[in-house]
């Protein structure tokens, strides 16, 4: 009985930490959406200035358009991440309900041992869903990071040939840098969520077996 109490407490603590991490990702995804919108405007302004610079600004105009497309892609990706997080939060909420059932079963002791085991079965199923969602989120963030870093390198290569659009170049570059840092932060948190979910699954398995 003491073992069951310890395990349910451990599961509760892990789920609480997982919930905090998903909330962090949701906040960062919202920030990314805002930055993406700002980057889109900066890229449009840079393209206009580059067009005014004639032949010299043509190369940067191409990059500015790529950055604009990246900003839109980043906005959509952040939106998709927020949808995934909402789904994860629902699953975490259901997992918490399962823990409450297990705790209730623990308090009633042996007479509802089967009910307690069923509660942990449900928790295990929900944890499996959370693990998949966190893994998908982490992979998506890593893909977007690679896109951002690639365009960031392109901006640096062409910036030297776009003197007439230098001010806009610096603004767009700074915005892309900020997006990259945020995406990296999300990827780290998503990986931490995955680790928490794995730990939660192991804890549940210890109870079951």
Automatic annotation (TrEMBL):
Any single GO CC term annotated in Swiss-Prot or TrEMBL for this entry: membrane
A single BP term in Gene Ontology: signal transduction
SMART domains from the UniProt entry: MA
Pfam name, any one: MCPsignal
Keywords recorded for this protein, A-Z: Transducer
Keyword Repeat: no
Repressor keyword on record: no
An MF annotation (GO) of this entry: transmembrane signaling receptor activity
Highest taxon, organism lineage: Bacteria
Gene3D superfamilies: Methyl-accepting chemotaxis protein
Signal peptide limits: none
Domain Methyl-accepting transducer: 1-180
Entry-linked PANTHER family: LYSOZYME-LIKE PROTEIN-RELATED, METHYL-ACCEPTING CHEMOTAXIS PROTEIN MCPB
Family membership: Belongs to the methyl-accepting chemotaxis (MCP) protein family.
Name this protein carries in UniProt: Methyl-accepting transducer domain-containing protein
């Amino acid at each position: 009985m003491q073992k069951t109490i310890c395990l349910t407490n451990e599961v509760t603590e892990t789920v609480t930490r997982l919930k905090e991490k998903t909330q962090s990702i949701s906040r960062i995804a919202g920030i990314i959406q805002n930055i993406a919108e700002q980057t889109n405007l900066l890229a449009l302004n840079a393209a206009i200035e580059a067009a005014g610079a004639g032949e010299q600004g043509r190369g940067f105009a191409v990059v500015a358009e790529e950055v604009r497309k990246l900003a839109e892609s980043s906005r959509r990706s952040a939106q998709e991440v927020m949808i995934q997080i909402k789904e994860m939060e629902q699953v975490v909420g259901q997992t918490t309900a399962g823990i409450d059932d297990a705790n209730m079963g623990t308090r009633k002791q042996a007479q509802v041992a089967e009910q307690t085991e069923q509660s942990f079965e449900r928790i295990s199923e929900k944890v499996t869903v959370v693990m998949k969602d966190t893994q998908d989120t982490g992979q998506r963030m890593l893909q977007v990071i690679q896109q951002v870093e690639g365009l960031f390198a392109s901006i640096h290569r062409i910036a030297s040939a776009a003197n007439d659009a230098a001010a806009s170049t610096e603004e767009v570059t700074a915005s892309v840098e900020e997006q990259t840092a945020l995406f990296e932060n999300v990827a780290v948190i998503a990986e931490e969520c995955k680790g928490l979910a794995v730990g939660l699954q192991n804890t549940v398995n210890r109870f079951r077996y």
